Amino acid sequence: MDKRPTINDVARISGVSKRTVSRVINGATNVGVATREKIQKVIDDLGFSPDKQARGLAASRSYLLGLIYDNPDALYIDQVQRGVLSVCSERGYELVVHPCNYDTENFIDNCVHFVKRSNIDGVIILPPVSESKKLAAALRDRNINYVRMASVDLDDHANIVVSDDRAALSDLARYLVSLGHRDIGIISGPKHYYSAIERLEGFCHTLKELGVDVAENRIIEGKNTYESGIECARSLLIQSPPPQVIFANNDEMAAGVLKVAHEMGVAVPESLSVAGFDDNLLATRVIPSLTTVQRPVVAMAALAAKKIIALIEHYQTEHQDTYLVKPHLIIRESTRKAQK
Amino acid sequence: MDKRPTINDVARISGVSKRTVSRVINGATNVGVATREKIQKVIDDLGFSPDKQARGLAASRSYLLGLIYDNPDALYIDQVQRGVLSVCSERGYELVVHPCNYDTENFIDNCVHFVKRSNIDGVIILPPVSESKKLAAALRDRNINYVRMASVDLDDHANIVVSDDRAALSDLARYLVSLGHRDIGIISGPKHYYSAIERLEGFCHTLKELGVDVAENRIIEGKNTYESGIECARSLLIQSPPPQVIFANNDEMAAGVLKVAHEMGVAVPESLSVAGFDDNLLATRVIPSLTTVQRPVVAMAALAAKKIIALIEHYQTEHQDTYLVKPHLIIRESTRKAQK
DNA sequence: TTGTAGGCGTTATCAC
DNA sequence: GTGATAACGCCTACAA
């Protein structure tokens, strides 16, 4: 590899000590204007940029951000990565990815070890892993910076970005009732996920307010997978009469509903309206396209990145306090007015 | 953060010099058995592991692998990441992701700079960026280790993993002809991508061998996007008569074909067979499910990771030579025998 | 087989 | 405002 210029080169050429160069690099205020300009010029001429490793070794920082997740939704991950990276590149950080197994017993040690062995400066944690109190506690105990992305306000606002799924589902409920539907089926997510509970409650609560009750046998707990969506849709659609609407906790399962409806000869949206959640790639590809809820994932991820950097660099910003973003309803072809 | 034990602690406690500890850490052979065991015990007791930054600074290595891509297919990226990471975790590396804009003029500088500023030990490059001769040349000039994933054998075998798309498309052609189809439409990928050319040629070549000619107006150049698939499908299906089969260069575009067929009242697979490429998530979700070609992406990525590490650590392995993997045909609902 | 000494490129301490 | 000098934790000639 070509030898890159070092701080020593800069110091020698500009005729000052490297301590002073260091001051300029780090934007310290106590440097004479003339000195600063002279040094800056040399830096520019040389194309010098500080070596991350040396810098990290001395300051015990790595300029590395970690992304911890156990989420089957690749599209979601991809959007998060893009959001985080847009901030990283501005601020001189890099992103190290770390998928893990939420289920395994040693997953907390695994994550901690990940951070330790590479001196990761801070981690962003995605749902559903982000819902783990144990992980958050373990990180906090070890003074590891983290920011969680979640659907519930379960941490200090400096450590979390939450999407208001409850409010979004409330909107969806209102919309469906406005179409004249009163018989609604639900395929929820796994009940041990806060996100699933939030969505379910937000949905049912508003329905109730509007005078619509959801019978118990119309709520089925799914696993957020396509296969599970198929299974649950089947047990919902063999009921007689079948519901007028099915809301599925994510688009994957909603796609499963479409599949089963097609098999059973149930026309969507003529005889059955279907809604999902995520605005996954699938939502537009599927026929009919899905009415769903879109989270501003890229923006949330960027916000999370700003927060983690604020934590690392110990400064206050307005980002510290803003933490709540609201997803919005996207109406497509899979929902329609109730038949008379 | 808790203070981690250092090599000095290990040396002091085991009563040897840190040079000897260093030898044990790095698996040097010239250490007395007794000494080695004694030191190893201390290492285990302390839970010591060498600091990556210090190590990197001294040895000018970072134990970081980079992943360079500009690919809209999040699913593909996700699979690659998992494949690479499975090897990384075994070998003590971490993965740093770097999406970039293939189109922009400074993308090469951007990538080089990415590697330099974090002292990335080596990069894995995904298609279509991997097809860039300029990038490869730039990396080689600067002695940056790289491995490309591609559809064509366009580099030293130590630097590439290629999927034999040509052979796979040959299989597809044979399969379609065996169903009795002779009138075939094609939505190719952008012609400036090798992958698109390989697939197109592999397909047409075998068709010709089987006595099937594809008329020029039956081949349309798409852009690998869903929208482009819709557009191209339309101009193919308004021809009279329309083709019996449409092969699209990827599943995204094939999904577009299904959409248009649905709009135009063309039954798939009864009146039109459709095939894609990738075995994207879409392939199974869509109705009817797609006949397509699956690349063993995770395995390819793992192989690429092994190759890049071999390059970094300068050793020969059998991985150096194996570089070609063959995708295989997956037959689903979207293709069917030609009607009499 | 083992140890000594110096260096990797930066930041931090504490004088001046 | 500026500059020696010592860390930071590890690796690598070179010596013994």
TrEMBL record, chains A, B:
<protein>
    <submittedName>
        <fullName>LacI family DNA-binding transcriptional regulator</fullName>
    </submittedName>
</protein>
<dbReference type="GO" id="GO:0003700">
    <property type="term" value="F:DNA-binding transcription factor activity"/>
</dbReference>
<dbReference type="Pfam" id="PF00356">
    <property type="entry name" value="LacI"/>
</dbReference>
<dbReference type="InterPro" id="IPR046335">
    <property type="entry name" value="LacI/GalR-like_sensor"/>
</dbReference>
<dbReference type="InterPro" id="IPR010982">
    <property type="entry name" value="Lambda_DNA-bd_dom_sf"/>
</dbReference>
<keyword id="KW-0238">DNA-binding</keyword>
<dbReference type="InterPro" id="IPR000843">
    <property type="entry name" value="HTH_LacI"/>
</dbReference>
<feature type="domain" description="HTH lacI-type">
    <location>
        <begin position="5"/>
        <end position="59"/>
    </location>
</feature>
<dbReference type="InterPro" id="IPR028082">
    <property type="entry name" value="Peripla_BP_I"/>
</dbReference>
<keyword id="KW-0804">Transcription</keyword>
<dbReference type="GO" id="GO:0000976">
    <property type="term" value="F:transcription cis-regulatory region binding"/>
</dbReference>
<dbReference type="Pfam" id="PF13377">
    <property type="entry name" value="Peripla_BP_3"/>
</dbReference>
<keyword id="KW-0805">Transcription regulation</keyword>
